[in-house]
Amino acid sequence: MANPSRTAALHWTVVVPVVAAAALALTWGRALPVVAVVLVAVLLAGAVLAAVHHAEVVAHRVGEPFGSLVLAVAVTVIEVALIVTLMADGKPGSETLARDTVFAAVMITTNGIMGISLLVGALRHRVATFNPEGTGGMFATVTTITTLSLVLPTFTTTKPGPEFSPAQLAFAAVASLALYGLFVAMQTVRHRDYFLPLDEHGEVVEEHATPPTSKAAAVSLGLLLVSLVAVVGNAKAVSPAIEAGVEAAGFPLAVVGVVIALLVLAPETLAAVRAARRGRVQTSINLSLGSAMASIGLTIPAIAIASIWLTGPLVLGLGPTHMVLLALTVVTGTLTIVPGRATLLQGGVHIGLLAAFLFLAVSP
């Protein structure tokens, strides 16, 4: 008879993150042949699936909304490290990498992840139900931080070009971090009930399944971090192949940031879709908007600190096309959130906005 502990230890959700991390250690900083790129890409996909599994284990243990924060913050911290690492390389186009990646993350989360979640929730339950009070607060915070960090640099005059002066960058960093901290306090302490899943009647959904043990949750937390490091690190490992493909296709360099954001946000996307299939659309929205907020609220302060030793300009200001897409996202998102209920139409509109962003990134 098989030993249960041995079987658990050899489960794919344990093996794949370890193997993916080992592949990262072996390939880091090296030029990879085509076969190695394909292998790393396969391990990258496996690490994404493993990250979703372990995030759900941790979320089940700590409950909502803390569970959503675990995945959002963990992914964002590693994403920040990836951005700073790539900017430190000083390659042409690195001065806009932070802006391109962060804005791509905002569009993917507020339109892609949220749109797919609403679509899945409405398909299974006719109407996707969520709490407009908590969701509205999240969306307002995302809008404010995005505008302060990515729109204002285009219009400030202290420094020429779409850049902040050092003092302006410091203000944006402190404001972003303060707003994110205030949001976390509201979500986890003072108004926690605003961020809990609702059923089709607007009642809070209680979790009836037996939660995992503290030991199992701790193991999953560790493996979640390993999986996320493997996801982001292997995404960086295959990024030269992505850059080469983008250049060969004649696409703008900003597409590289979009592809990296898509890879990094894959765990949150899958976790959000799985939550929506179970009727927990609020959890999906917590993941999408929480990830957008963490991406900006943590990235801008980190970039502000890193700019002390990074050489070259730091371009944060958006161009006219992206500002139009952001404005349309804000208006559409507001109309989606206010009723607290969404149909297939709202989900389809948000996915359409993401499609427009992706198309214009390739063909500006």
UniProtKB/TrEMBL annotation:
Membrane topology field: Multi-pass membrane protein
Keywords: Membrane, Transmembrane, Transmembrane helix
Subcellular location, principal: membrane
Pfam families cross-referenced by the UniProt entry: Na_Ca_ex (PF01699)
PANTHER family: SODIUM-POTASSIUM/PROTON ANTIPORTER CHAA, SODIUM-POTASSIUM_PROTON ANTIPORTER CHAA
GO MF term (any one): sodium:proton antiporter activity
Keyword Oxidoreductase: no
Top-level taxonomic group: Bacteria
Protein name: Ca2+:H+ antiporter
Compartments (UniProt record): Membrane
Residues covered by the Sodium/calcium exchanger membrane region domain: 34-188, 220-361
Chain ranges passing through the membrane: 31-54, 66-87, 102-123, 135-155, 167-186, 216-237, 249-273, 285-309, 315-337, 344-362
Keyword Membrane: yes
GO cellular component, one term: plasma membrane
